[in-house]
Design brief:
about 400 residues; binds zinc ion; alpha/beta; single chain; 10 strands; five-stranded mixed sheet
Length: about 400
C-alpha cells in the first residue's frame, strides 16, 4: 500500500499511509495527517496547536467483496487566530459522516440498479446508511427545484392510504417534473408552494386542476392572471360517478327480475364501448340493461357523448357542443344529469379553456402508477420527506424507482 494508491483508489489525498490490518474478512487502512496540514476548521487559519486526537473510522469503497475501512486519528486543534477548539475537517468525508465521499458515490451508482436492501447487503452496511446517502443526494438535487421558468402547471392530490392520507402535488407540464409535494389536500397544502413561486418571479399562463372549489379559489387567489383548465379525466370521472349513482338508485327501485339484469352492469356502464369484451357477452348484457331502463340509457349515451367534447375542431365548435349537451341533459328529466349539467354550466369557462391550453392533469395520473410502485416498497412512509423527494425525482427515472 502506498500514499499514491490511497489517492488513486480511494480518493484520499493529503494523508500518509501507516499500516494495513486484516480482521474477519475486512481490511483496515490506518492513515495519519501531518501537523503541517492542520487547519482551523472555523477560520481556515494555520496557526493552530494540537489538543489531542479522536479515533475515527470511515467506510471506504470495498476491494472486491472485502469491506474496507479507513482508521484516522482526527486531530483536535486550538486556533491561535480565532480561539476555536475543534476537530480538524476530514478532507475525504462530509462532516459527521462515517463513510468517505467515494463510498457515497459508489453507493449511489449501485442504487441506480439495486434496491436499498441489496446495496446495503452488498456493502455490508445498514439499510439506514444507504437510505441516508440516497436521501441526501435527492435533497441536493430535488429539494429546491428551480421555479422561475414554470409556465404551465397541473395540480392534483394523490391518496397514499388510510393512515397516510393525501399529498397535493404540483407538476411542471413542460418537463414532467413534480416541483412541489404538500402534505394533505386542499388549499392549505399549497401555501408553501405559492410563497416559493412568488419569490421565483415565475409567470404562469395556465393551470390544470379538477373542479374542486378549493383549488379554483387557490389558483384564482394566487395566480389571478392564469387560465384555469378543468382536467377532462376528472370531468369524465365525475360523470361516471353520477352514472353509478343512477344505476344504484334504479336498482333499489326495480323489480326483482330487473335487478338481476342491472346487477353487474356497473363496470360495463363505465367502460368505454370500444373496450367491451365480446367474448364475455358484455355488449349484449349492457344493451339489455339499457333497454330495460330509459333514464339509464339516456345517461349512458350522454356520458359517452360527453367524451367527444375534447375532440372538437375548435373552441367555437366545442362551445356549440357543450351548449347542446347541457340543454339535452337538462331536458332529460334525469336528476343526476340535470345536476351534472348545472355543474358543467358553472365551469364552462374552464372547460372551454382546454381549446386555448390543451392541458390536463393526465401526466399526474401516469405518475400515480409510479407512486403505487413507490408505495409498495415499504420505506415510503417511515420517512415522508424521503418519499416526497422520491416523487420529485420520478421524472429522472435513474434510481428513483428502485427501493
Ligand atoms: Zn480559527
Amino acid at each position: 500500500m502506498s500514499t499514491s494508491l490511497l489517492y488513486h483508489a480511494f480518493a484520499i489525498r493529503g494523508y500518509d499511509y501507516v499500516k494495513t490490518d486484516y480482521a474477519e474478512g475486512a481490511v483496515t487502512f490506518t492513515i495519519c495527517q501531518r501537523p503541517e496540514n492542520w487547519r482551523c476548521p472555523a477560520c481556515g487559519g494555520r496557526r493552530v496547536i494540537g489538543r489531542g486526537q479522536v479515533q475515527r473510522r470511515f467506510r471506504a469503497v470495498p476491494i472486491g467483496r472485502r469491506p474496507v475501512s479507513i482508521a484516522l486519528p482526527v486531530q483536535r486543534v486550538g486556533c491561535l487566530a480565532c480561539g476555536a477548539v475543534r476537530q480538524v475537517d476530514v478532507a475525504f468525508a462530509d462532516p459527521r459522516r462515517s463513510y468517505t465521499r467515494a463510498f457515497e458515490r459508489y453507493a449511489l451508482e449501485l442504487s441506480q440498479h439495486m434496491t436499498i436492501k441489496a446495496v446495503a447487503a452488498h456493502l455490508g452496511i445498514s439499510w439506514d446508511v444507504i437510505k441516508d446517502i440516497q436521501k441526501r443526494d435527492l435533497q441536493r438535487r430535488f429539494a429546491r427545484p428551480r421555479l422561475a421558468d414554470l409556465k404551465q402547471l397541473a395540480i392534483d392530490e394523490i391518496h397514499l392510504g388510510k393512515k397516510q392520507g393525501y399529498v397535493t402535488v404540483v407538476l411542471d407540464l413542460a418537463s414532467g417534473a413534480i416541483v412541489f409535494v404538500g402534505q394533505g389536500k386542499g388549499a392549505d397544502a399549497l401555501e408553501p408552494f405559492w410563497k416559493r413561486l412568488d419569490r421565483s418571479g415565475a409567470v404562469i399562463d395556465a393551470v390544470a386542476i379538477d373542479m374542486s372549489p378549493a383549488y379554483i379559489l387557490a389558483v384564482e387567489t394566487h395566480l389571478p392572471w392564469a387560465v384555469v383548465v378543468f382536467d377532462h379525466f376528472h370531468v369524465i370521472k365525475l360523470c361516471n360517478e353520477k352514472l353509478s349513482q343512477l344505476r344504484r338508485d334504479l336498482y333499489h327501485q326495480a323489480a326483482a327480475e330487473d335487478q338481476e339484469v342491472l346487477q353487474g352492469t356497473r363496470w360495463l356502464l363505465l367502460k368505454n364501448p370500444e373496450d367491451l369484451d365480446p367474448a364475455r357477452d358484455e355488449l349484449a348484457r349492457l344493451e339489455k340493461a339499457l333497454h330495460l331502463n330509459q333514464p339509464l340509457a339516456t345517461a349512458y349515451y350522454l356520458k359517452e357523448e360527453l367524451r367527444q367534447f375534447w375532440n372538437q375542431a375548435d373552441k367555437a365548435a366545442a362551445t356549440t357542443f357543450l351548449e347542446s349537451w347541457i340543454a339535452r341533459a337538462k331536458a332529460s328529466g334525469v336528476g343526476v344529469l340535470r345536476s351534472l349539467a348545472k355543474t358543467l354550466r358553472r365551469h364552462e369557462e374552464g372547460l372551454l379553456a382546454y381549446y386555448d391550453y390543451p392541458l390536463s392533469t393526465g401526466p399526474l395520473e401516469g405518475t400515480n402508477n409510479k407512486v403505487r410502485a413507490l408505495q409498495r416498497q415499504a420505506y415510503g412512509f417511515r420517512d415522508l420527506e424521503f418519499f416526497k423527494l422520491k416523487l420529485m425525482a420520478l421524472h429522472e427515472a435513474k434510481y428513483a424507482l428502485v427501493g
